[in-house]
Amino acid sequence: MAMEELPVFKHVLQIPSTPFCVRFNEWKTVAYLFQGKPASWELNEDPFNILLSLLTKMGLSNVDREALSAAIPAILKGVEGFCLARGTDPVHGEDGTIHCYFETHPVEKLWLQSADEEHIDFRNRQEINNVAAGTCLAEVVPPKPSVNGSDVWGKVIPAKAGKPATITAGANVRLGADGKAYSEIDGSVKIDRSRIWVDNVKVVNGDVGFKTGNIEFNGDVQIKGDVGETFTVHAKGNITVEGIVDRAALSAEGDITINSGLYGKEKVLIQAKGNISVAFAENANIQSEGNIYVGSALINCEVHTKGKVYLKAMGKSLVGGHLIAEAGVEANCLGNPRLPTKTIVEFGVRPELVQHQRQLQTEFEYAEGERRMQIREELEELRERFEVQSHAQVAVKVSTYPGVVFRTGAASFEVKSEIRAITFYKLEGKNEISMRPCIPPKDKTKDGERERRGGK
Questions:
Q1: Long-range contacts for 337-345 (Cβ within 8 Å, ≥24 apart)?
Q2: CA–CA gap between residue 360 and residue 382 (Å, rounded)
Q3: Domain residue ranges in the chain
């Protein structure tokens, strides 16, 4: 017979003149009798009846006497406890949400839909959420109700009510009498937490060059041609380039999509606060606060993302350079199958962020007013970032070739010979990179299984 799983006890009450104590969980919805501090039973009455009398005085009178009597010897030996009473835990309400009638994560949806395909059509991505004037964009879903609990004495334990959600109408959005959000113009809808707004889209029907000059736009930018050398494009929304980006700088507060390719050079930066999607990149400097999606390859690139890197190609998808992916990497192949090429792949918790957290914690002790509030928000952002980093791993479905160096924290591992279908991860509490099998998309043969075990 399986032993009963005990709750986590938070409160202890010693029963006077007895070797027993009563332990309660946090809400005092469960009461257990355990062996307590040693005490003398120098009384003329039956010890069992004395215990029942004392429990009754404590308000715990509805006890199974026969079961308690049978359990006392084991309790006094410290072997087990006895459940005296149970109440009901409170059920807190769930917060309200905002239901959107548009795709809130178009890039992620695209990659999920094409998870079993080797290639993605970067020319027909349909990432922009186009809406017409009068379109219903979103509505509020009310909170789910809470249910009060009761402790072992029948006292009500109030449950927390769910917080209602609210929609904040941004630019070109109005809230109707029905509480729903509607677009006031034709454009592209965006959402950031509770704020919804609609942007116009700037379309460049050709190349970005001397004819257009540098572009800075308070919304989305669509470029039908190439972006020429030394030119810059900045958008407060997304940037989409149908052609090639040739040693030009792109900066977006949303996502960046380059459907053809990217040629970079030193100190020329491709930077996005959202996701970056590119067919291929060579000698590029890429920074993202979201995820990075690569259709073909990254060759000798410097890459840093707070999110994850997805490498789709089956061949040389990452060769040379330095890749930092705080949330991890998913790839079919890493490195050069023909010639060992040093390729650094870093993932997981960043040492410089740990140091920054310590500095903020020290500053917080002496900060006041608005600065103290700012530090509290920064520390919360770091906590959330560390939570993502702590689960980071590098999953390589097919092969990792010699020359690839993995780093996470103080741990490092260099690949000396080809490793098949392996996931690399940091062992919890240790400065060591470990490996476990990563099931490839098609190789399900016995030979493939033996190769994976041998490569571990």
A1: 337/399, 337/401, 337/418, 340/401, 340/402, 340/403, 341/403, 342/403, 342/405, 343/318, 343/319, 343/403, 343/404, 343/405, 344/405, 344/407, 345/318, 345/394, 345/404, 345/405, 345/406, 345/407
A2: 10
A3: 9-86, 97-198, 201-455
Q: Beta partners for 233?
A: 215, 250
For 242-283, the pLDDT digits (tens) are: 999 999 999 999 999 999 999 998 889 999 999 999 999 999
**If residue 196 lies in a helix (H) or strand (E), which one and from where to where?**
strand 195-199
Phi, psi at residue 384, to the nearest 5°? -65, -35
User: pLDDT tens for residues 117-175?
Assistant: 555 555 445 566 778 889 999 999 999 999 999 999 989 999 999 999 999 999 999 99
For residue 453, the SS3 value is helix
Per-residue tokens: 456:
């571990």
Residue 7 DSSP label? P
Are 245 and 97 contacting, i.e. CB atoms less than 8 angstroms apart? no
Helices (H) and strands (E) in the chain, counts: 6, 40
C-beta separation of 303 from 321 below 8 A: yes
Residue in this structure with the two tokens 């999509």, named with its chain if needed: 257
Question: How far is the CA of 343 from the CAs of 252, 297, 335, 434, in angstroms?
Answer: 28, 13, 7, 18
Tokens of 304: 């840093």
Closest listed residue to residue 122, CA positions, set 234, 255, 6 = 255
pTM of this prediction? Answer: 0.57
Residues 6+ apart with CB under 8 A from 423: 393, 394, 395, 396, 435, 436, 437, 438
Residue 226 CB partners (closer than 8 Å, separation 6+): 207, 208, 241, 243, 244, 245, 246, 260
